[in-house]
TrEMBL record:
The gene is guaD. It catalyses: guanine + H2O + H(+) = xanthine + NH4(+). Its cofactor is Zn(2+). The lineage of its organism: Bacteria, Bacillati, Actinomycetota, Actinomycetes, Micrococcales. It comes from the Bacteria. This is Guanine deaminase. GO terms for molecular function: guanine deaminase activity.
Length: 442
């Protein structure tokens, strides 16, 4: 395998040939037309963007002479995956035994995050994280940093080097955590302002104002977060919401005047169409209705909800309420960096809710649905002209079992579904970032 950094110059023209598969709209509303495939297709890439996409037979003449053509015939070429909730600083504590949310934070997450005041440590973990997600075909992530600004500097510097489209932010946390992780309302705001000035819109990086969750911020800090969000129209709001029952009870204790968990954020001006809330497992109907009205999005993190015993998210209830939903890995509470594994876990949780998600819906949640949740639906998430050429190339013969099973599928939808059930990062044959090969398995 090999990794390479993005070139300093815009990528030269390149063509990628293979079995193109993409979802260009929400299958729930657009129906069968949402899933588009070209069994022998080609993507022409110029200056990092898709300039043409379609059947190879129809487009071969348009490929300029001398253009390199990467031949992935027999493999599925998809838009790169979008992970709408993760914590890169928790890469080293994935799969930690024995606790649920609040204990898990104290026992594993906070000690790991304390180390990120060391810029070299932060840079080293960022490198591992980027290597790992690119190997899984993920080209965009919305990630927490730690409360240390150096954690965010390391993440965005690595993203700039790789040319990836990434969103992250410094954790705002001024109570209920180890002293070494606490900021204040004032210092958190100053650090956030400085990081936005340093990184937002630099390369393909974007910023998210990131209070950890209601229990670790004073009302004063949440109010400051709302002011930051209002002052910077291009940045997102990224936090946790209604993940675990003990957490919800704690929020009720800490904010007795609020009308529930979402209302704590709402009163601070944090619930809007640039807001991404991780989990939302235990939301009330009124909270879902409020989120729908505000245009806020939920990052559903199925492997994390299972691993931490948080509960079973109902995609059906969120969809019925008209709330936008996408998928997140929630590393290190989640158990896999692979969005294919995450699609499989989302399917399993929906099964317990009486719903059988089909392959186009799962692929939408992991690609364009994620892009839309992050306000990037016009730039990433599907194979369409004008979009940024972030691609995941998937090999249906990556393992002996996958090859055996794939050979016994009779439709594209069945093949995609089997990938979501059986495949993981071993199925990523290549990952392209802005048209540049960022990971090649072979
Ligand atoms: Zn999380």
């Amino acid at each position: 395998m090999s990794y390479s950094a993005a070139p300093d110059e815009p990528s030269p023209a390149r063509a990628v040939r293979g079995h193109l598969v993409t979802v260009v709209d929400d299958p729930d509303t657009a129906g069968e037309g949402a899933l588009v495939e070209h069994p022998d297709g080609v993507i022409l890439i110029e200056h990092g963007r898709i300039s043409a996409v379609g059947d190879h037979g129809a487009l071969a003449d348009r490929i300029p002479p001398g253009t390199p053509v990467d031949d992935h015939r027999g493999r599925i070429v998809s838009a790169g995956f979008v992970d709408t909730h993760t914590h890169y600083p928790q890469t080293g504590i994935v799969g930690a035994h024995g606790t649920q949310l609040i204990d898990w934070l104290d026992t594993y997450a906070f000690p790991a995050e304390l180390a990120f005041t060391d810029a070299e440590h932060a840079a080293a973990v960022a490198r591992v994280f980027f290597d790992t997600i690119l190997r899984a075909g993920t080209t965009t992530a919305l990630s927490f940093g730690t409360s240390s600004a150096s954690s965010v500097d390391a993440f965005f510097a690595e993203s700039l080097r790789r040319g990836t489209r990434m969103i992250a932010g410094k954790v705002l946390m001024d109570r209920h955590a180890p002293a070494g992780l606490l900021d204040t309302a004032e210092s958190g705001a100053a650090d956030t302002e400085a990081l936005i000035a340093r990184w937002h819109g630099v390369g393909r990086n974007g910023y998210a104002v990131t209070p950890r969750f209601a229990p670790t911020s004073t009302p004063a800090q949440l109010a400051v977060a709302g002011e930051l969000l209002a002052r910077h129209p291009g940045v997102l709001l990224h936090t946790h919401l209604s993940e675990n029952l003990a957490e919800i009870a704690w929020v009720r204790e800490l904010f007795p005047d609020s009308d529930g968990y979402l209302d704590v954020y709402d009163r601070a001006g944090l619930v809007g169409d640039r807001s991404v809330f991780a989990h939302g497992v235990h939301l009330t109907d009124a909270e879902l209705a409020r989120m729908s009205h505000a245009g806020a999005a939920i990052a559903h993190c199925p492997t994390s909800n299972l691993f931490l015993g948080s509960g079973l998210f109902s995609l059906r209830r969120a969809a019925d309420a008209g709330v936008r939903v996408a998928l997140g890995t929630d590393i290190g509470g989640g158990t896999s960096f692979s969005m294919l594994r995450t699609m499989g876990a989302a399917y399993e949780i929906a099964q317990l809710d009486g719903v059988s998600l089909d392959a186009p819906r799962l692929l939408y949640l992991a690609t364009l649905g994620g892009g839309r949740a992050l306000g990037l639906g016009d730039r990433i998430g599907s194979l369409e002209v004008g979009k940024e050429a972030d691609l995941a190339v998937l090999d249906p013969e990556a393992t002996e079992l996958l090859a055996y099973r794939s050979a016994r599928t009779s439709s594209l939808e069945e093949l995609l579904f089997v990938l979501g059930t059986l495949a993981d990062d071993r199925a990523t044959a290549a990952t392209y970032v802005a048209g540049h090969p960022a990971y090649l398995r072979d």
